[in-house]
Each structure stands twice: as C-alpha cells, then as structure tokens.
Predict the 3D structure of the following.
Amino acid sequence: MMNGGGMGGGFFGTSFLFIILIVAIVGIIIWMMRGKNPGQSTHSTQQNHFHSLGLLKERLAKGEITEEEYERLKRKIDE
C-alpha cells in the first residue's frame, strides 16, 4: 500500500544517496592527490639544499676542495 515509501525513499532517494557517495569519493581522491606533491617537493628541495651544503663544508674541512672551489660550488647550489 505504501508504494515505495520505505527508508530509502524509493528510486529518487536511493539515486540521490548514490550520487552523494560518488561525489564524496571523487572529492576525497582529488584532495589526496592534490595534498601530496606540493608539500613534499618543497620539503625535499630544502633538505637536498642543506644536505649539499653540509657535504661541501665537510669536503672543505677535509681539504678535498679549496675555499675558491667551495664558494663556486656553493653559488651553484644556491641557484
């Protein structure tokens, strides 16, 4: 007697919930993909820069490179 008037609300209620679910899944995927690259690349670039400078200082301290070579390589890293 109720003709589709259960908990789901019939065809239109079920379709609406399905559409909301799909939109939520797509939104989560986009949010996850967008959030990964920018923060990591900036952090990785800074880490590489400091690591490279540390290696240069170490080589200078060991006498493997001269002060002139150190300054030249440091300028190149800073570019």
Notes: Helices lie at 10-62, 67-78. The mean pLDDT is 78.
